[in-house]
Amino acid sequence: MAWFWGRRLPPAWQTLLVSATMTGYWLLLDVYEFSVRVAAWSTFSTPSLWLHALHNAAWPLLVCSATFALCVRLLAPRTPAACR
Predict the structure, then answer these.
(1) Which of 5, 38, 51, 57 could bridge to 30 as Cys pair (CB 3.0-4.6 Å)?
(2) Structural domain total, the chain
(3) Which keywords describe this protein according to UniProt (predicted)?
(4) Best CA proximity match to 28, nearest among 48, 46, 54
């Protein structure tokens, strides 16, 4: 349950907040992994490093985000009102 400024967020906003946080961490991890494994052996500038990592992470992020949203959408009506 997400609390924001002293009030509880609706489930849709909680899902969006979790998805955005996980997406940000995923991108940071991809940039770090790419910089350690690939960019350390060649000449990548910082913008090209981020662009390459974003390009490689786009498809997995899209698939995982869509799956997560679908699961939340299917399971949300079945949860008790006390859990929402």
Answers:
(1) 57
(2) 1
(3) Membrane, Transmembrane, Transmembrane helix
(4) 54
